[in-house]
Amino acid sequence: MDxxxxxxxxxxxxxxxxxxxxxxSARADLMELTENSHEASLRPKSPGGLSHAERAGLACRxxxxxxxxxxxxxxxxxxxxxxxxxxxxxxxxxSDARLKAIIRHTDLITTKPKxxxxxxxxxxxxxxxxxxxxxxxxxxxxxxxxxxRVVHSLRLMAEVA
Amino acid sequence: xxEILKEFTTxxxxxxxxxxxxVLAEATPEQLEAMKVTVxxxxxxxxxxxxxxxxxxxxxxxxxFNGIMFHHGGLSRAETEFGAVAASVVNECIYCAAVHANxxxxxxxxxxxxxxxxxxxxDANLDDRQKSMLNFSTKLSQSxxxxxxxxxxxxxxxxxxxxxxxDLTLSTSIFAWANRLMHILxxxxxxx
Lengths: 161, 192
Fold this sequence. Notes:
The complex is a heterodimer. In chain A, 66% of the residues lie in helices and 0% in strands. By secondary structure, chain A is an all-alpha fold.
């Protein structure tokens, strides 16, 4: 894998010619696993009850909640049917109880994870989400929270390097 | 069931899942494969059995997590744990904070740093190097955009290399991830 072609490298602007290239390359194994985690979170072979299009839409929504325009653009490139509405931060799911619960959960855990309580998992279960899908959604939210921070910090480091 | 723990502690709690973990005897080959790469080879905990409900992400996440926490070179093991604790304090993930404060204390044989962070959080009165790390990890954890160039420069001025800052970034960020699993999919209780 060319680590300079990964989502993290491209979103943060790190190239093989960057002053940060050697620091970035020293953790090449971790950057490869980060890219593999992106694939497993966004385009898994077994998506369960959370489609690739829904995942791309939610990922884009989370990038917007963190004001990361490079990642917003990246996730827009993965859009499929239904992604657009999920990525609209003013859309709350409307009359679709399942989407409403997914969006509420995604927004809460992305921005205020410490406020999570037992009722938040129950709320997902009550709209018919099974436990594997709740874990899939949790991993997607958690991965984005990781990726957004790594990308932002690399940009700051590049300013100092 | 006992009360959910709300206060920071270095005594590792019992983690009670809110979803039904995989039953080991019924695990699919893919789930077994994903769980196999876990470092803990003595017994498979509830946390791993919960994450095995989505084996594809677990398969990648376990080596990533272990690689970040047990890397070679760069930031010391103890200061890598420091990043994990800083994130877990912001996110109030009592379980993660306990596990990693405990490891920090074992590695450094000094409980005062974690005591100060648990009591005063971002305002903990540490030495200048650790203050600059706590400042950065706290901001990155709260909302990434709060961290800016000056926060990175402050760490450089206090002797951190960019390789170390990258490692601190990774340990802080992998706990943005871990906290959003542990604190959501289960809850901490006193050990029975």
